[in-house]
Amino acid sequence: MPFAPHSKIVFIGDSITDADRARPIGEGLFNALGTGFVRDIDALIQATYPERKIRIVNMGTSGNTVLDLKSRWDTDLVNLNPNIVVITIGINDVWRQFDSPFKVEEHVLLPKYKETLEGLVDHTLKTGAQVILQTPFYIEPLRQDLMRAKMDDYGEAVKRIAVSHQLKIVDTQAAFDRELTHHHSSYLAWDRVHPTPVGTMILARAFLETVGFEWKPAESH
Predict the structure, then answer these.
(1) Catalytic residue (one of 74, 99, 153, 191)
(2) CA–CA–CA angle 219, 203, 27 (5° rounding)
């Protein structure tokens, strides 16, 4: 199990993280963690390692770009004193360039995206928290698709930040690409962005495999 007992893990990002989580803080009963991959991760951890008492909090906000994260970083993340921070951001930074091409004030171009995300990582590491990054994704098998190609560019920027800071990186795009050899994108996400239950479990599995989660406690092996 990669997380120490009583670790507090805060997930932050856009609608993929949010998934209708509770406000102001997504934690507790009655789908407070939302209905997405954060809930799936919590369920698998609690069912497998109940004695660890891992605390998971969802602070995703639908529609967010990396600039929105920056504006709420201290109040919605740092002030929660997490041990581990999981950042999943970039889909809206890319998407707005395609679904709102003339509203350029909403576009977050790659240099600004990379600069801002790296600043958030630096800021968070200075608090003593561990940071785990997840790439943005677009569930489209045709890599020449314009939005898919740009999303890949943003994903590569996330990977470079992870490498430069020696962070764990969850390649969510690669996880979906493996599934796309078996399923049509509409089975995983009707709009190629917001995952179905199968899609959220793909994200949860990719995360847990990347961090070194063991599916059974060592004493039961």
Answers:
(1) 191
(2) 75
Dump pLDDT digits (tens) for 24-54: 999 999 999 999 999 999 999 999 999 999 9
Residue 150 located in a structural domain: yes
- 3-class DSSP assignment, residue 200: helix
117-157 confidence digits (pLDDT tens)? 999 999 999 999 999 999 999 999 999 999 999 999 999 99
In a domain, 3, yes or no: no
The verdict on residue 132 lying in a domain is yes
Give domain status of residue 92, yes or no: yes
Based on the residue annotation, tell me whether 182 is a catalytic residue of this protein.
no
Confidence of residue 179 (pLDDT cuts 50, 70, 90): very high
Alpha-carbon gap, residue 33 to 37, rounded angstroms: 9
* Active-site choice (15, 40, 107, 185): 15
Q: Which of 123, 165, 183, 194 is catalytic?
A: 194
Please name the residues in contact with 53: beta carbons below 8 A apart, sequence gap of 6 or more.
Answer: 5, 6
User: Is residue 42 among the annotated active site residues?
Assistant: no
Active site residue 123: no
